[in-house]
Amino acid sequence: MPGLEVPSWDPETAMLIGVILLEAVVLYVGYGGLERLLGPRVMKLLVGGEEHGQ
Known about the structure:
Layout: H1 11-48
């Protein structure tokens, strides 16, 4: 049947996709950690204290 063939992957393309996925995971984890560490402090500065939060 036409269209059911498995395409052959160029090794450079596969490596590029892997690097992009790894970069996305690192950024996701890194930004999540920064938000967890700095988020409450920034909210205190912007909102004006604990009484206005949550």
